[in-house]
Write a structure and sequence with these properties.
Blueprint: E1 2-7, E2 12-17, H1 24-27, H2 32-38, H3 49-54, H4 56-62, H5 65-79, H6 97-102, H7 105-116, H8 120-125
Length: about 140
């Protein structure tokens, strides 16, 4: 994803391409308890963009397939019950239309972005702002 970073002191705009950055707003909507359960490696990921961009470990994590897979899996975990299906998602193949819809991460990213008002460019515009953790019952469909 391409982002604009504006530096008013130098009167410059820098355009940077950051892999998986578009999924960070969705990631910030995951409750801490859920991350501890599903992806404990990501619980300590900084809650500010500045910290992610200045710490190589987290910058690399953000750009990794592991991060993308974690966001996809946790999102599917949450949207699956909203379909009204009582069977476990694992009972369906990756070719099943319902399974594919649950794993359509970009679709859910867009929906949650509209619901929360948190956008990738908004995060980039406020680099040092810490994103608050939300409660488990706040993150539901």
């Amino acid at each position: 994803m391409k982002l604009q970073f504006i530096n008013p002191q130098q009167n410059t705009i820098t355009v940077v391409k950051l892999k998986n950055f578009e999924f960070l707003p969705l990631f910030y909507l995951f409750p801490k308890e859920l991350l501890q359960e599903k992806c404990p490696d990501l619980v300590d990921m900084p809650r500010s963009i500045h910290s992610i961009l200045t710490q190589e470990e987290w910058f690399t994590t953000l750009a990794s397939d592991y991060f993308l897979q974690a966001v996809c899996d946790i999102t599917a975990f949450f949207v699956w019950p909203a379909f009204g299906i009582t069977t476990f998602m694992e009972c369906f193949s990756g070719y099943d239309p319902m399974w594919r819809l649950a794993h359509a991460t970009q679709l859910w990213e867009d929906a949650f972005e509209k619901m929360s008002g948190i956008t990738p460019q908004g995060l980039a515009n406020n680099l040092k702002a810490e994103q608050e953790w939300i409660e488990h019952d706040e993150f539901k469909i």
